[in-house]
Batch of 3 targets.
Target 1
Amino acid sequence: MRDIVRAGILGASGYTGADLVRLLSTHTGVSIDLMTANSHAGKPMAEVYPHLGGLDLPDLVKWEDADWSNLDVVFCGLPHGTTQDIIATLPDKVKVVDLSADFRLRNPETYAEWYGHEHRAPHLQDSAVYGLSELNREDIHRARLVACPGCYPTAVLLALVPLAQRRAIRSEDLIVDAKSGATGAGRAVKEATLFCEVAEGLHPYSVSRHRHSPEIEQEVGAAFGTAVNVNFTPHLVPMNRGELVTCYVKLEEGIKVSDLRAALDEQYRDEPFVRVLPEGAVPATRHVRGSNFCLIGVFADRIPGRAIVIATIDNLVKGSSGQAIQNMNLMFGLPESMGLEQQPLFP
């Protein structure tokens, strides 16, 4: 392991790219040596994001002009479909933390079905490690290519996978009601995320067809050891950042709600970023804003034999850039919480 990890950021002008820069600016083990943004090539980062103007950063360049030779790791914050071609051209010595969806789904046919085109780097898929840090730590440490989970799957899987692995809940009739801030849609201008379309209202989107559905089913199914269907519906909330998922589950016979909380406590008691709340405490997005934390609460449903598990994260940090840095720390043998010690911003 070298003293300083030299990093590049692909897609640095997006929201996740900006949060990567914000978080890495306090990381004493990393230097940012390359940033790409084809639509802003030639500009300093301060021109795109004035709040980052006080940092010593390289100017933005086109990815085609990037020099990879001196880099140790590349963070890929590009749209799905773009990353596959670029990663395939990188030197083998460069490790990759991919924030896109390009390597999350293990079955290339499933990827093609949900993302509308064939996988263009299937030879790399088998080597990609699913980057849910708390549940896949050892494989991430040995990986060259880590596929960071989507923001919704991060919250859902942290809440449900330990319960599925312990057979505390049943594999059928899993329902997830999810809500996210507008930054989850990215920075590109879209009619659906204009202020007048988002403010003062709440609406579901991608009903029964959200691309995170197969990712959630893949990982929850692996935890159960059988294929599952998850009823997943996301909603857009008129806030900038934050995410909350409410998971409705059936208890296995003989299992009590207190057993679910005990199982999650056992799983996460030594984790730096996942906190299981005491009985009666309700997770809220304002309690994790700007941080890499995930808060989980467990409640009895008024319907016998059912429970409600609620998890909240900041979609841009634990749901994206923070988790990417957590994975990079694992890949390079750095302290896992390095660069991620920021406490939530409240109110």
Target 2
Amino acid sequence: MNQKIKYVFDHSLLNYHFHDDHPFNQKRVLLTKDLLEEAGQLSDEQIIEPRLASETDISLFHDPSYIHAVKNSLLLTKDELLKFGLGTEDTPVFPKMHEAAAQIVGGTLSAVDAVLKDGSTCAVNFAGGLHHGFKKKASGFCIYNDAAIAIKYIRKNYNLKVLYIDTDAHHGDGVQEAFYDDPSVCTFSIHETGRYLFPGTGSVNERGIKEGHGYSFNLPLDAFTQDESFIANYETALREIADFFKPDILITQNGADSHFHDPLTHLCASMAIYEKIPEIALDISKTYCHGKWIALGGGGYDIWRVVPRAWAQIWNVMKDGKPMQGELPLSWIEKWQEESPVTLPTFWHDEYELFPIIPRKKAIEEKNNFTLQNLLKYTKVKRS
């Protein structure tokens, strides 16, 4: 059992709220914490409060003109907002947006310091993982890119090689671009192909530039990919990449939107992948990083049936080395069922009869394997 793990939480992290009808809903962060507490998996001693990130912290990645725009968003014209990707349907402005976004950044930096300064082995900030933010532009529900800022912070203050792993159904474009020319940061994103899904990037041929060429990896999966193909391709690729790069620390972005219940994507995985993803990360962190691993949240738009279970399993694996099995705590179900618009699950696993039947399953698996082989040839070229 690993007691040297920390869980970043404070109710201020829930202030990142665009409007009541927006699909990005941070109530999932509270639901996850409550699920772990009801399951007896999270104690007060393991929780740390996030600090508020300073402008100096945020400017490690973001341009000062963009930070200024975020801080003054309610005073800007529509044209001025659009210049910075603000005021759109995806990223509308809201009061105290800068403070809410800076709190999330501070939460991720608190997780970093818990591991690299205070002696913890692993830490989580499930409010973070806002991977679409760019240097001068908001995108895809993301204002400040806490993952990119954290990696810059690690490079500046601790000089470690960082392996960033992104399992969100959407390509981790903002983090990839931030380190596209940096050989000290390796990025790996497994996601639904951009053919039908935002942001439309993340092909296997996006490899980095200049000194960073060969340190960006993408594994785009065909729409309707299910568990077996996801897990096999993910594990094979990640183990090869980790052995090639040999990182000092892992940062994982754990979007929970590849599930068949998710309303915004077209992948068809079950809870099985959300058990395997952290198990592989834990093993790699122990093999190369003395266990140093920081896990963030990300996407995930079925906030009742999917995200709490998926994120809770990350913590369960960090804590016990394995995911939880069997029934969910009845107390959690009874507490939240009246508020939930859907019937809450009763087990950590999905019930088999809910799994969608995909007629093209074999063809999808063959296509994904072909993409994997294209990715793997790059690690071989880089080694030679």
Target 3
Amino acid sequence: MVSPAKTPAAGTATPVAVEGRDFVCVGAIAGAHGIRGEVKVKPFTEDPMAVGAYGPLTTEKGRLLKLTPIRVQGGAVIARIEGVADRNAAEALRGSRLHVPRANLPATEDEDEFYHADLIGLAVVDAAGQAIGKIVAIQDFGAGDMLDVALAEGGFAYLPFTREVVPTVDLKAGKVVAVPPEGWLEEPEAEGGAE
């Protein structure tokens, strides 16, 4: 794993903005665990224990944290954070989203694997090259990834992120080609029509 050559001491504030494609959110602190400063972290990494493997983590407020995962418990990772020694200090971090520089993450092993940060901001075009919109977020409501698309003509819509619906992802060209399902943008009919 690549780690930064030089980083400020853990816990210090930095002027780093963690929004955009240069940073990837790898987890979020769900709260304190116990009385000795341990925290529960909701990991967004494929391997939950890898949440602390990519160097110091940066919160959205610019605070650097050195996180050491201890074990997986339920859907969370129990971890220690350098300099956090009691429950109050751990609880103060609740809700903090944890980011790492995109450059610290390993390359994806499969051509069909992408980091969410790499997809956000890409143009969405149809097979003829006509603009559909732009990816603004990736959501997972339990049935797989959905691309949240800001439509070119206004509004937002979700596209399933499947090979059938999104056959081409071209990071170099900054776009994805989509074949939206039939009736994708049609308004659903109201039940029990007018009498």
